[in-house]
Amino acid sequence: MRKFWIFLMLIAVLSFALVGCVKPKVEEQPEPIMLKVDLPDSLPSSITSIYLAGNFNNWTFSDDYVYDVVTENGKKMVNVELDWDNLEYPIQFKFSDKMDWAGVEKGPDGKELTNRVIFEKPLESKKLRIWNFADTSIDYSSMSTPVTVKLVVEIPNNTPEASGVYIRGDLINASWDGTPLTLNDGKYEVTLTLNSYQLYQYKYVLDNTWDHVELMPDGLSDIPNRWIVVTDNETIVNKIYAWK
Questions:
Q1: pLDDT (mean) for 36-54
Q2: How far is CA 191 from CA 151, 171, 226, in A?
Q3: Closest residue by Cα to residue 186 from 204, 159, 221
Q4: Four-residue CA torsion sign, 186, 192, 196, 202
Q5: Would you tell me how many other CB atoms lie within 10 Å of the CB of residue 237?
Q6: Could you give the CA distance from residue 166 to residue 207 in angstroms, rounded to a whole number?
Q7: What string of DSSP letters covers 37-86?
Q8: pTM of this prediction?
Q9: Which residues on neighbouring strands pair with residue 95, listed in sequence order?
Q10: What is the SS3 assignment for 166?
Q11: Which ranges of the chain would DSSP assign to H, the alpha helix?
């Protein structure tokens, strides 16, 4: 009987030791969703913070939306994390290198930009680039070369089948004439030759008329002009939420 109890005690000790050696499984935390924003090379070293203003904070630059300038892979940038779950979409915003509009971001040509827009909660981090600020400027014109840009467009389910989808903007010509998109595997697309380091503005319409221009997701208000700046051959995916 004594041997039996000794055997049970040995089993208990071994079981305890084995349980102690097993490390509890640690659930991996998902990477936070960020706006990873590259800054201009001309940014003075004296500027160590970038400010953000948008429709989610009454377009006011403040200490509540300020982000430290960091260097990653030799490039100055800021990492912007917002409370994505509690924002009212779409959000519109702009950056500034000052706590006011005197340092607001500009396009590669130094001219005013329309608002940046995020239409729905992002599922992953996004890469953005600031080309210029109002008080610091780079001339990108000497860097411009022809590039091929493919625009792929997701359309609403209620889009009339007989209506053609067109793109209108200064990426077509200065008069914003329309160019038709081609239906391919359920999405519309068009391939254009553009100039790199140049800002282009555009919108999508049905039947090549502004009477049926794309709208905000609420189906009521016009979207700001879409805009792009590309540095190389690229494919850009746009989503249309509603038509006028």
A1: 95
A2: 6, 11, 17
A3: 159
A4: negative
A5: 11
A6: 7
A7: EE--TT--TT--EEEEEETTTTT---GGGEEE-EEETTEEEEEE---GGG
A8: 0.84
A9: 52
A10: strand
A11: 2-21
- For 163, the 3-state DSSP assignment is coil
Q: Return the residue matching tokens 């792929």.
A: 152
Annotate 116-135 with b (16+ C-beta within 10 A) or e (fewer): bbbbeeeeeeeeeebbbbbe
Nearest-10 Cα torsion for 14, 16, 20, 23: 90
Q: How far apart are CA 78 and CA 81, in angstroms?
A: 10
Q: What is the arithmetic mean of pLDDT over 180-185? A: 94
- Average pLDDT of the segment spanning 206-215: 96
Contacts of 3 (CB under 8 A, 6+ apart): none
What is the DSSP secondary structure assignment for residue 128, as one 8-state letter? E
Which tokens hold the place of 40?
């201009």
The reply to whether omega before 90 is within 30° of 0 (cis) is yes
| Distance of alpha carbon 111 from the chain centroid | 21
146-154 and 234-239 as β-strands: parallel, antiparallel, unpaired?
Answer: parallel
Helix, strand, or coil here: 141? helix
Give the integer Cα–Cα distance in Å for 127 and 123: 13
**pLDDT reading at 150 higher than 70:** yes
pLDDT tens for residues 104-144? Answer: 999 999 999 999 999 999 999 999 999 999 998 898 999 99
In this prediction, what percent of the chain has a pLDDT beyond 90? Answer: 81
Cα 40 to Cα 133: distance, rounded to the nearest angstrom? 8
Q: Calculate mean pLDDT across residues 60-89.
A: 96
Residue 136 to residue 130: CA distance in whole angstroms: 11
